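Continued from yesterday's entry.
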Amino acid sequence: MARVVERPAEPDRAGAEAPLQRAAPEEADVELREWLDSLEYVIRRGGPERVEAILSRLRARAAQAGVVEVAPFVTPYVNTIPAEAEPPYPGDKELERRIEAVVRWNAAAMVVRANRRSEGIGGHLATYQSAAVLYEVGFHHFFRGPKDGFPGDQVFFQGHAAPGMYARAFVEGRLEEAQLENFRRELAEGGGLSSYPHPWLMPRFWQFPTVSMGLGPLMAIHQARFNRYLEHRGLADTKGVRVWAFLGDGEVDEPEALAAIRLAAREGLDNLTFVVNCNLQRLDGPVRGNGKIVQELEAFFRGAGWNVVKVLWSSDWDPIFARDETGALVERLGRAVDGELQKCAAEGGAYMREHLFDSPELARLVENLSDEELARLRPGGVDPDKVYAAYRAAVETKGRPTVVLAQTVKGYGLPGGAARNIAHELKTMTDEELLEFRARFGVPIGEAEAREARFVRLPDGSPEMAYLRERRAALGGHLPERRPEAPRLAMPDDAPFREFAAGSERPVSTTMALVRLLTNLLRDKEIGPRIVPIIPDEARTFGMESLFRLVGIYSPVGQLYEPVDARTLLPYREAKDGQILEEGINEAGSLASFIAAGTSGYTHGVTMVPFFWFYSMFGLQRVGDLAWAAAEMRAKGFLIGGLSGRTQLAGEGLQHQDGHSHLLALPIPNLLAYDPAYAYEIAVIVRDGLRRMFVEGEPVFYYLTVGNETYPQPPMPKGVEEGIVRGLYLFRPGEGRRRPRVRLFGSGAILNEVVRAQELLAESFGVAADVFSVTSYKLLHRDAMEVEHWNRHHPGEAPRRPYLREVLGDDPAPVVAASDYVRALPDSIARWLPGRLHSLGTDGFGRSESREMLRDFFEVDAKHIAWTALVALAEEGRLPAEKLEGARAKLGVRAKPLAVNV
């Protein structure tokens, strides 16, 4: 039976070693001393690498003997890098301190002035003040800007720290004072600054939107991974590009924040550094008042395989630790929960002496310090020496990513706000508080100007300005900075699209048609290498396994095994230069990869064409926040919602059947959403998308839904290309001019039900129905809104007509619209139609059933479409009402509760 023993190590909250058990005290002491002496010898003679090699062998032998090791994933609550191991600081710390003081001041003044001018406009004082040193050390010594073809480092700035980035850009001369005056007032005369990092609003400045908590870390990991992908595929030299992600310790509670850290370690992303601002507070109070967030995160990251560097205590603490010969202080700090540490930072020296240094042994360590000196003991995250040492260790670490856990104080230096639970809500300061802040950091500004929170510039020719410019020049240029335009691609010729216009008598699904088109595009010599297929472990479901052989699955190590299907026609093939990003069951990570690929033209100057293919129910509904981020980053590419529609996916049931993703696509301004019915529609849409996004450079991206229902694909009618891309065209006109007329709208696979309804109406009831294919309700809605807006503001001019009225004319014939989605989708265009709209849709929960039964249940099959058309005609007096009962019986329609209520 295996024996479980714990290695001597601290418990989760303590800094002391766990006692050895099951041995007499004298024997244990001798045994321990022998082991420690041997360890010291190896450390001196062989160094850390030799120590790790021996420990690895010892662990393996212990496992063979049945000893199950419980490995410690936390280290004592001290800095990872000892003081004696710190590298010398390379910069002029006094000049950097003066620059930091001015940036701190301007960041605070910006928020104060905004709220004095417009009370409640918001902004955050505390976050940047806690993180200023973390950023300034980076700007002076690590963050490389774009220069001479080098794209620069990619920095995901913590969203609430945005005022600090604006303040630095102002000091550098990149922003004007008028812009700082209009912080959070973007519609003011002369323009302003966005509240947070928003690339859509400031396309030459911000690269990544990060203030939707948790998305920044996730996107940063997949960005670092995509940088390697580009390098391994020979498309870009990204070896020197480092990704930095700054996040708060409270932010890590968002599931997305830590969701991908295993991928980063698994793929050895040593081009990635996380910096966690551990100020121990979230918006309302402590992050872990009764625990230790730093230790929790250390265990999490270390367990996932990251290099962890803790920066907890400043150089002020080094002499105290040097006097701690017994380890009593380390043990006490390990026991102190975060709520205690926060209160020590808030209450000052006397409180610290009483409650932290609370034993005679601990009191002796600080007996030479006054209460004021105790209060000035800084955390490690505000000490440039400690931060520099951590960053240097991060960039020198090979084979794995690094996380820097930097302990700071929320609202550091803010009078009356530092370490208080109200810190996050601080928006302004009184005159006296501004003067105190000025004195605390030595800001070069007069008293009158300080009371007004005036901005401070460094004079040209000053040592500070010269130093700042020299450091940024040495690192390549300014950050943040974004390339506003992505390089254009050449349009592929007609060959990949040509076959789809002819149609197919053989039953084919729209999924199969799009896979065929994607395969054609991948084989194109020009655009093929730029395509990035992204699949969350559903390639076989979508019939895409042929791509494994064609272009391979990306793996940074290639394929270290022979797959079980190696001798089949379609083996599972991984390759270092593979083109497919096979993300596993991970829609969020897949969309983060889509963003990295879709913005590659901006970040690297290498335009890529991502196709992210997913189960439509688990797309926008699950990762809508990331889709919004993609939109504002001007990401380009195709989102493909497979197995779409509430009734097309037979048997799967409620949680798989998508009847509302097109409704979720409506609010995203630059997402063009289509629900094509036929292969030729798909070909026209994809070709138009390639032209608009990658040839003409429009900042849009596409959402297409496709299904797995097979049916014959009709040939493309002549002259319908414009209607396909604009959202509506006449697919099949009704016959008979004198008959009662109705218009039938269909989308996706339900268009086939509409065509059958047309036949029923003509053959059984003498009703002529024109069938229209609606490829995009969103585009029809957008076009009608734009026309309506123009007409409202030009009352003296001839009114314009929305596109759908150009197609339909003024005939008030009733319209019956049926789709596999909720009725709100066709209802969105109702008021612009010339006749009354009767919408049919799949509102309600899905069911596990056949397509036939599902369409009957939701009343979107041919008989219900025909019945609705007859009722609509009767209501308008175009059909005798007495004929309805006979029609109901003939069609087999029965009254039943609305599906949404069942």
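--- second protein ---
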Amino acid sequence: MLAARCLAGHWLMVAAVLSGLAVAIGAFGAHGLKPYLSEPMLAVYQTGVQYHFVHALALLLVSILMLVAPAPDAQRWLQRAAVCMLLGVVLFSGSLYSMAITELRMLGMITPVGGVSWLVGWTCLLMAGKRLTHL
């Protein structure tokens, strides 16, 4: 149980960092980049920020669930969900930020990989819930 609490604490810190970065990146886009980005690229950037925020909060939820989920099987699914949420932010939002700033549209090919990572993460959360209902 101690190892699970330690892992939950680490994921909680990752969620806090991701959330803070979402605030900073969003503010940077709204105030620092707005004069330099075209309207379509600003919209791309803002989409990255929006999904970044949502999934940073999802990771926060997952880390809290790790503290209260008693089933080891559920813990494994929650760990997988956490990894997928983090990968999704890096790949999906990161590619959108990069594409907006550089205007290299080919970076958009990375974006769906991040989206799939999130879908897998949400599925892992579903599986954790299923394991918790069978206690």
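The chain has a mean pLDDT of 94. Residues 2-33 form the longest helix (32 residues). Will compare against the first tomorrow.
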